Amino acid sequence: MSHPILDRLQSDHQELSRFLYSFRLYMQQLIDPSSSSDIALILNMLDFINVYPENFHHPVEDVIFAHLMTKSNIDLTDVTFIMNQHQQLEAETREIREDFQTLSFSSRGSLDRFFDDVMVYIDEQNAHLFLEESSVFPLIEDVFSEDDWLTVEGLIDQHFPGDHWEEFQSEIDQMITDIERVLVSGDYRDLQAPIDVQRDY
Ligand SMILES: [Fe+2]
Ligand SMILES: [Fe+2]
Questions:
Q1: Taking the mean position of all CA atoms in its chain, how far away is CA 123?
Q2: Distance (Å) from CA 105 to ligand 1 centroid
Q3: What is the DSSP letter of 161?
Q4: Over the stretch 107-121, which tens digit does the pLDDT of each residue have?
Q5: Measuring CA to CA, how many Å separate 139 from each of 11, 78, 110?
Q6: What is the DSSP letter of 191?
Q7: Model pTM?
Q8: What is the CATH number of the domain that holds 36?
Q9: Cα–Cα distance for residue pair 149/140, rounded to 1 Å
Q10: What gap in Å lies between CA 163 and CA 57, rounded to an integer?
Q11: Which residues are within 5 Å of ligand 1 (an ion), measured at CB?
Q12: What's the total number of domains in the chain?
């Protein structure tokens, strides 16, 4: 039984994994010339992957990981790597969103390049989640005492007054469920006014 904060981070990871899976499927549709794509939906997805980890998930992890780094006699290689990767992933997310906005859908080469970049980005995000789950979270569970958790809880309360986690979780869950439904049905009407991509190749 892990600490409730780790449980919450793990439940975020489940949502993020579901999201990344849907995003990969949707990007595969984007490069298929026979399907029509909804730009608004992709922008929604890119907003989500920009806003949620950067404003909530990563800052909470950073508080916990920074506390872990005050400990001696443990191997901090993975946690150092992971903390640096937060900034890198956030920068890449912003870049992909910008690239998407200037993407030329009429150029097969530019679309293929964008698709390849997004696939690399999704793999990096998944590898990040995996390293946290397989290495950093178990290390925290091993090393943290009750006092460590009290310190970390105090810092998190200070940075995020009020507990909006459940609100966040239900919003995310609803959004991903909507995206999954749209992916299955191909019916975008409930989600956003569709903007069909014009292709001339
Ligand atoms: Fe992380
Ligand atoms: Fe995480």
A1: 11
A2: 32
A3: -
A4: 777 888 999 999 999
A5: 18, 10, 42
A6: T
A7: 0.84
A8: 1.20.120.520
A9: 10
A10: 13
A11: 61
A12: 1
